[in-house]
Design goal:
Structural class: alpha/beta
Number of domains: 1
Number of helices: 11
CATH class: Alpha Beta
Largest sheet: 8 strands, mixed
CATH superfamily: Thiamin diphosphate (ThDP)-binding fold, Pyr/PP domains
Bound molecules: thiamine diphosphate, iron/sulfur cluster, magnesium ion
Oligomer: single chain
Number of strands: 8
CATH architecture: 3-Layer(aba) Sandwich
Distance between the termini: 18 Å
Length: 288
């Protein structure tokens, strides 16, 4: 199903993202989909830099900058306060990075999911702590260079989508900026659904951290899907899986070749990564 993104002028140009940043692109798609009756919670991250320091903001909606640990709890508190005031129309969304989701904010996210808080939580996953100089997070994939894994990361990426599926939340989806209509449709669906926390993890290539040209974000994002590195799917109530875009027989080497964070890979490393991706896909494919 195609989905139109309408420009609602809730995200201003002139913000401070690196030109070509996919995280900024994702924010634009997300806010234009959610619309002006939205409150955002943003923890420390490039997202917070893009959003801007008080009293300036590129987001033309109320934004609360939380601590890195507490974005889900902050969003839940804001939603509960709105409900206590009789406001049942304003959407509350937490938009956090992978460091703020997979690692530092995880306990707050997990407990908000378990409590069934009526919020949307969107993780913009650029696979590292990019705002502080590209350190590794538990979202960094195997063998990728970061400034804290100079020889390549020795452990695989944490499977956040499956961890959230195990919380039996009403809705979770994977998305990426190379498929904007799919991303927007999933944000709209998360806004429509109720009955608990709705979670989206969106892969957003980072120019600096991944070592890609300014114009390459969407292409790299599409290759992540086509190579099976990051399949796009949805899960309702922890059990109903739907595949949106899966692998298209593109070798993982075509995806890694565009990124300087993988330039140290040997042929044996490439083989290892291909096997890892194939194994992950075989495990996931059984669920559709
Ligand atoms: C508890 C805590 N530890 C460390 C920091 C420093 N810090 C600020 S932003 C940031 C990086 C966050 O990375 P991520 O969530 O992946 O967002 P990105 O910058 O990649 O968009 C870190 C480590 C902090 N603010 N709070
Ligand atoms: S460092 Fe990466 S995520 Fe941060 S603004 Fe630049 S391109 Fe975007
Ligand atoms: Mg990050």
């Amino acid at each position: 199903m195609s989905y139109q993104i309408e420009e609602q002028k809730v995200f201003n140009s002139g913000h401070s993202a690196c030109p070509g940043c996919s995280e900024a692109l994702a924010i634009r798609f997300i806010l234009n989909t959610l619309g002006p009756d939205t409150i955002a919670v943003v923890p420390p991250s490039c997202i917070a830099i893009i959003s801007g320091p008080q009293p300036l903001s590129s987001m033309r909606i109320p934004v609360y900058q939380s601590t890195l640990e507490s974005s889900a709890a902050s969003a839940a508190g804001i939603k509960r306060a709105l409900t206590a005031q009789g406001n049942d129309h304003t959407t509350v969304v937490a938009i956090a990075g992978d460091g703020g989701t997979y690692d530092i904010g995880f306990q707050s996210l997990s407990s908000a999911a378990e409590r069934g808080e009526d919020i949307i939580y969107i993780c913009l996953d650029n696979e590292g702590y990019m705002n502080t100089g590209s350190q590794k997070s538990s979202a960094t994939p195997s063998l990728a260079y970061t400034t804290s894994t100079p020889a390549g990361k020795g452990t695989p990426k944490k499977n956040m989508a499956e961890i959230m599926a195990a919380h039996d939340i009403p809705y979770l989806a994977t998305a990426t900026t190379g498929y904007p209509e799919d991303l927007a449709r999933k944000v709209a669906k998360a806004q429509r659904l109720t009955g608990g926390l709705r979670f989206i993890v969106a892969l957003v290539p980072c120019l600096d951290g991944w070592g890609i040209p300014d114009s390459a974000g969407p292409k790299v994002s599409r290759l992540a899907v086509e190579s099976g590195v990051f399949p796009l799917y949805e899960v309702e109530n922890g059990v109903n899986y739907t595949l949106n875009f899966g692998p298209k027989d593109v070798p993982v080497a075509d995806y890694t070749a565009l990124q300087k964070r993988y330039r140290h890979l040997t042929a044996k490393d490439q083989e290892f990564l291909q096997k890892e991706v194939d194994g992950n896909w075989a495990r996931l494919a059984k669920k559709f």
